[in-house]
Amino acid sequence: MKLSIVSTLRGGFFFPDILPGATFRERLVSLKRFGFDAVEIWGKWLKEDLDSVQAALKAESVPCGNICSGFRGNLLAGDREERMICFQDFHDLLELAAKLETTGMVFVPLFDKRPQMPDLSPLWDPYEVQKEVFIDMLGKLTQRAESLGVKLFLEPVNRYETHVVKTLQDAAEYIEVVGSDALRITADFFHMNLEEADMAESIRQYGHLIGHVHMVDSNRFLPGQGHTDFGPSMKALKEVGYSGNLSLECFAKGDSETVLPQTVAFMKNLIA
Predict the structure, then answer these.
(1) 197 CB burial (10 A radius; 0-12, 13-18, 19+)
(2) Cα dist. 49→43, 55, 123, 145 in Å?
(3) Contact 159, 166 (CB under 8 A)
């Protein structure tokens, strides 16, 4: 397993940049200095900044582990135009993932506690419409991912932020229906802590489908700054043979120059 951390290109993400540095390249320098292995790039502005991003990655010899979201709208918007804008952004980001030689792209299908789709009863209610649209979208997007040699990482999110995919089981069910190796799960410890009855057991059950991991503590801060017991879950990841990135997508308490080296040591101890 390798250690990764999210960085933006121009700021503006839900999570602030916790790597020191005024520019993307400066944050890469900090990343290496603290002992991280790769960077996870928030996808917004990546298309516009691709040349400078590639130059910075090459200059600092830092691999891009994957792209984190960065698309407009959502795949399950009630408005068709918004859906299609999002769909095109997915295509663009998958192409960028291939150009950067990353594993792929992390995404959440919808941040909303109820469907935005129309009620087509008695044929389909809004939940059924949403499910059919999502399956169709996933089928088309995974075909594109397959052709580019990258993957889509579906991230389950807790019940307070979505109603679509909340658990590893939810994600696994869509993967089974779509039937593509290009669709895998992002296991986020913050969301799992809220939704999984037994995180370690869920990892054992669905570990063969986990392609990416977000390391976040119970309070959405750095691992070790909350009350999550990472030990059993990390043991489960080892048991299922997970060898991908453990990526920090979170807030931080304290000065980054102090807490990030501490976090790297904490994570390395977990995977030792």
Answers:
(1) exposed
(2) 10, 10, 45, 22
(3) yes
Kindly report whether the global pTM for this prediction surpasses the value 0.90: yes
pLDDT digits (tens, 9 = 90+) for 56-91: 999 999 999 999 999 999 999 999 999 999 999 999
Total number of domains constituting the chain: 1
- Which CA distances in Å does 91 have to 48, 143, 146, 152, 245? 15, 11, 12, 11, 23
User: In CATH, what number is assigned to the domain containing residue 12?
Assistant: 3.20.20.150
Domain residues for 150?
2-271
- String of b and e for 22-32 (b: at least 16 CB within 10 Å)? eebbebbbbbe
User: How far apart, in whole angstroms, are the C-alpha atoms of residue 110 and residue 117?
Assistant: 12
Burial of 59 (0-12, 13-18, 19+ CB in 10 A): exposed
